[in-house]
Amino acid sequence: MSDLAPLLVALPVFGSVVALLAGLARDRVGWAVAVLTLVVQTAVAGTLMADVLGSEAIRYVVGGFTVPIGIELVVDGLSATIALLVAVVSLGVLAYARRAGPRSNAFYVIYLLLVAGLSGMSITGDIFNMYVFLEITGLTAYALVASGDGGRSAIAGLKYLLVGTVGASLFLLGIGFAYIATGTLNMGDLATQLAEVGYGSPLVLAAFGLLVVGLFVKIAVFPLHTWQPAAYAGAPDSVSAFISALVSTVAAYALIRIVFTVFGTEFLAATPLASTVLAAGAVVSIVVGSLLAVSQSELKRMLAYSSVSQFGLIVGAVAVGNVVALTGAAIHLVGHAIMKGGLFLAVGLVNDVTGARTVDEYAGLAKRSPVGAAAFSVLAVAMVGVPPAVGFVGKWYIALGAVEAGAWPLVVVIFASTLLTLAYFARVVERIYFRDSTETSGLAPTATDGGEDDAPEPVVSVGMRATVVAAAVVAVALGAVAAGYGDLLEPTIEGLLS
Amino acid sequence: MEPIVPPFVPVILAALLLPLLGQKFGHAVAGVATFAVVPYVWLVDSGAHFTSFDLFGFETVIFNVDPFSTLMGLIFAFIGAVGVLYSYYSDAEAIQTAFALSYVASSLGAVFGGDWLTLIFFWELMAVTSTLLVWHYGGKAVRAGFRYAILHGIGGTLFLGAVIWHFAETGSFLFASVPGGPETAGLAGPVAPVLAALGVGVNVGFIGLHAWLPDTYPRPHIAASVFLCVYTTKTGVYGMYRVFPDDGNVAVAYMGGLMAVFGATMALFQNDMRRLLSYHIQSQVGYMVAGVGIGSALAQAGAFAHVFNHILYKGLLFMTAGVVIYRTGEESLKKLGGLARQMPLTAGAFSVAALSIAGFPGFNGFVSKGIVISGSHYTFQKGPLVIGDFYTLELLLLVGGVGTFMSFIKFGYYAFFHGEYDGEVKDANRGQSVALVTVAALCVFFGLSDGSLFSILPFDVTDGAVVDHVYVTYTTDHIIEGVALAVAGLVGFALVKKPLSKLGRVPDVDKLYNPLSFYGTRALVVGVTELYAATDRAVVRVAGGVQRAVAAPDRAVGRAVGRDRVPLAAGISSGIVLVVLVAAVVVLAAVL
Lengths: 498, 592
Known about the structure:
Chain B: Pfam families: Proton_antipo_M. Chain B: It is a multi-pass membrane protein. Chain B: The chain crosses the membrane at residues 32-56, 68-89, 116-137, 149-168, 188-209, 221-244, 250-269, 285-305, 311-329, 350-373, 393-413, 434-459, 479-496, 568-591. Chain B: Keywords: Cell membrane, Membrane, Oxidoreductase, Transmembrane, Transmembrane helix. Chain B: This is Na(+)/H(+) antiporter subunit D. The complex is a heterodimer of chains A (498) and B (592). Helix content of chain A is 78%, strand content 2%. With 498 residues, chain A is an all-alpha fold. In chain A, helix 2 runs antiparallel to helix 3 (77-100). Chain A starts with a helix and ends with a helix. With 592 residues, chain B is mostly helical. The longest helix of chain B has 43 residues, at 509-551. In chain B, helix 10 (250-268) packs parallel to helix 16 and helix 11 (273-294) packs antiparallel against helix 16. Chain B has 3 domains: 1-246, no CATH class; 250-505, no CATH class; 507-566, no CATH class. Chain B has a two-stranded antiparallel ribbon with strand order 1-2. Chain A binds chain B through residues 158-159, 162-163, 166-167, 170, 202, 205-206, 208-210, 212-214, 216-217, 223-224, 226-227, 271, 273-274, 277, 291, 294-295, 297, and chain B through 550-553, 570-572, 574-576, 578-580, 582-583, 586-587, 589-591.
């Protein structure tokens, strides 16, 4: 089944080309092509996931070359998880985007390219190849952010482009240093070569620093997050949900790969500074991200800062670097993607129904948009980490790992993060259910409607509602299976740490 | 006779049944049941006790008979029965008599307890039941009852603390006289007796702790006062004996002497009849406390003889005062006078009681007061003040006696002999008369037949083997002493009559501590409230500041640096600069 691995990249690229070409002939064909492509993509990712989870990793060398010269694709439990997550979330967002838009063919072309970039990042075993996919991901994401109406989206896209490119350049610089030190780009090979060069070598250390800081930009770790709130708030709702669920997630996955597959635990042990940098990034992100989230009045910006805080947790798990914490990181990556994507979609849904975009406008929302309000509340509670939702399981594993490692400052911050998360979500939920609406205005016009169709459509489709509700249900349901998944993932994580 | 039930059982049953059986029948049953306790405790063998009764899971003895308990039980039950009779004929409600009997029952429980836990249990119950008895009357009695309850709550708690301390020291609640009890009697350890003395001191009316007495007893129903004047203070004397059973306590003895003088002096200043009598309770209890404090067999026998006699004549005094109030509606001596002609029986009963309490030869007070004074002379230290053949404590007790004479001459003079009373007043009704005459007869009987009194005392005061100094009631010296006191009282009253009549109400310690506790409590409440409010304001201010800073950090920073606002959101360029800076720092840190 190892031949399936390249399909994960090839399929969306192919779909993207088909959408582009078909779009020349017919309007509005992009959505159908994208759905078709992503259904197959999901099936492939699911099959791979079923194959590798709990067993050996699948390795595939592209183009008949041999490792370490050729580009290797490696699918293990972790990468399969991320690949499947990418496929499922992108499929789910499609269900929402059909009515909510954007509806142009160009959108779906770029959308599928982004899926290709994300999938590639998840399964590649070559560090330069990872950079290429990182850039594909970045460029398509910039374009999607900018696809919204108005100057705000454009400015946000530009900011994302500039800051993101600097980050990617740092990443590339780091690869360059590593290559100079070892002469190889294959991750597995790099691991052994770096050990031979010696972990004290300035080249190796500089490479680590640049790679990590580059990925910090992509993950949006404070204070390198500056692109992120603008991008999430400025993008169309579908895009916000999509990139918030996946782009930072895959970047965080890349961080795990770089830190553990390329540099390895021995490097971390030999270089205390490395762990310190990671832990400092984690702590600052968690605390400051939450505080900034509390101070926001616009929902989407609040959710954006919430991401800064939540990815702090993931980075914290990387800093801890034991099996339990990394299992927690994997679970929280998946859980956060579902929850955050769902939250953005819920916010979009609410916006389409009522026009409410700020925290204050959410007063009395339960009456005006019961489905959106309920889904938002369930997801918010899950994000806070109330059992049995998946948000609890992820945080619990990470906290447990930190306790095992004796990283007490981190433990304190992780537990405090729950409280801080509560701080910014509680005020919204309180307004939704326990305050009366201050305004009586009904429906707001759909801002993202293409306007080509004259027939009056309902603002919110069944698909949109279903997606939002499904996200809420999955966020709770995943909590039940998360522990079992953690057990299946254990061999993979142990392999990562050995 | 073998013990059947603890003596409080028939009384408490009578109390429970009384309201159900109706006014007349209920009182009859209650009176009979209470009176039945008299022969019962008289006949039960000394030393009998119930062992297999666990109170709150501790080994206790709920019924223990020794000579002290027997004496207390006899007189408690007798005066209880008389009180029921008097209540009925003074139109007391059935429910009030039921409260009174529950109070009697708890007192009986206390004096027949064979251990500290039973004693303190019934002790606290007495405080509750007596408070109910006071409250039942309503009006001014309610606030007085409240003060009474607070003071007895404090006293009971101190006593309870002493008992717990004792238990911690010895591991047993039992009295030493009970089989299985500890070897030494009294409360163990250095602290417990002090706590107990203070706690019991509230009940017996130590000076400074006595203000509840004249505050409470004049206020309720006249029949309620008859009950009240008997049980609390006398159970206190009994408790004091249990605390200091062997050698007494010098401080307690002198406190008793001071109480005798203080109470009699304060009584002299009073115009309210029952208030005057209440101060005399303190004065008379002073003799008993002095006897217990002296601690010799003679003095203890005297103390308990005085308990016995005091209950008779003080009950009689409250009954006569009650009859006067019952017939005239007046509480104050200033509004009375010349009643002897219209109420000859009451005046006669009063005279007997007054001569008894003052200790005139031929009346029972003469006998028992004599024993205590004799104890203070022969079996106690001389003390700092010695005049001729009289020692300090003895002098105090004698001066107290003069004061007693003076105040009762005042009472009798103004109530019964001075001037004329306008209008028709009937004498005591039939039932009241029976009660008055019975008790008055006993006062005289025990005064003349002192041997009858001696036979029920715990120590035989006529036996040289038992007491250090054999006591003989009627010696020339003693009779001269008694008459001299009376003459001194007469002369003293003649001298102070004029100034006394001009005297207003003399303040007691409660004038000081009632406002003190009132304003103290209020200050505390206001202080706590204000502190809470201040804390609340501070917290709200801090929370508001934090909220403003979080909601608008740019303005908060702006305020701090003196500008309107400081833009904090990073633009594109500052975002890139940040990235580069962090990268530079990390890489430099890594490489260097």
